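During the no-cost extension, the postdoctoral fellow (Dr. R.K.) reprocessed legacy sequence entries with the updated structure-token encoder. One reprocessed record is reproduced below for audit purposes.
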Amino acid sequence: MTRPPVIALFPEASFGAALNCVGIARELAARGAEPVFLCHPGFTGVFAEYGFREYHLQPEAGAVQARGEAYWQNFVNTHLAHFDLTPQAQLEAYVAPTWEAIVDTVIAVDDSLEALLAQIQPDAILLDNVIMFPAILRCGRPWARVVSCAETEIPDALVPPYLSGLGPDDVAGRALWEKAASAALRPAHHRYNAFRRARGLRPLPQGQFLECSDWLNLLLAPSAVRYRRAETLPADRFTFLEGCVRDEVPFDPPALPANEGPLVYMSFGSLGAIDTDQIRRMIAVFATIPARFFVNVGGFLDEYREVPDNVFLGSWFPQPSVVAQSALFIHHGGNNSFCEALFHGVPSLVMAYCWDGHDNARRVQDTGTGRSMHRSDWSPDGLRATIDALLKDRDLRDRLAAISAQMKADPGVVRAADAVLSRLGAR
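Re-encoded structure tokens follow.
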């Protein structure tokens, strides 16, 4: 191309997707492209901090409330009790209401998105989301689907159903899940398909809210935890990444009064930080373990009055930099967190709340890359014993070191940029 290609990145309103896209955007910029971000309400300034131009979506007048970070924090807060349920029980209690809210978001901002795309005239769009916004298809520009959730998002007969937390061999569980999911999601799916038809698009099959791209699909599924598939995804349209870990500012761990022992990092994401009672309960256990615990508590730092000498609380951490220095990463099973742990050779203790956290909790257990525990149904002795075992498991550490070396030899951000720019160069 005779000018730098303009790449519009459109992540969903979550920091996992947002920061994944930042990693790809940085690599695209290093190659001479011009990445810009389409920005949901509540994420203003997130991408500008990394030096990227932002275009802000404006919900239509009278639309359902904009779905920014504050909305989702309130939404999660009302559903905290539901996170103790099994994945199947969460279908009615949490998953169906979440899809309804996501469909509301699409309807509220699609006109604004269409106007922004007409203004930007991007050479390509990277959509890191769980749902299609009709404006993307209507604008006629090449678009890539970025799957920064678990690989289960792309269905296959040998891959467990998305969000189910099932293993690949659980045939009976799969049948029960698919029947329950079909019933729970039918109203939201029917409403979404009606909106697609109104925008001149074909409806999607039962249970699907996002089609694969005919141009490019990027899946953040490292080979060490990838599933065997009944139908191989065509290599000319599907590019698997060895995760997609961004560089972040260096982290210099501050000295603690009890400044000895391995570093353990814990983060349940910006939304999981809402559960301050649960985090306090965990901190009480951390106080009894000879290690240093760095805990991301999001915007709730003032909720913690007494902090043990071996614990440091922060409202934000440069996560990849912290994980790189950690001996253990305790997290909620978000795909970025799981990939960052693997990239740096760190075992995961996954305590899933919802969504694809259940899938990654199962995968970490099945692949021997860490352990999973129920997020709240544990005893202090049980949590202490699990952390101690993970910190002392040298065989696990050796396996993860080999996985880390493989991922670092083939960085996902590089492969993603190669895939996007090579396709643009062929136009």
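The domain at 263-408 is CATH 3.40.50.2000 (Rossmann fold). The chain has a mean pLDDT of 93. The remaining legacy entries will be reprocessed before the final report is submitted.
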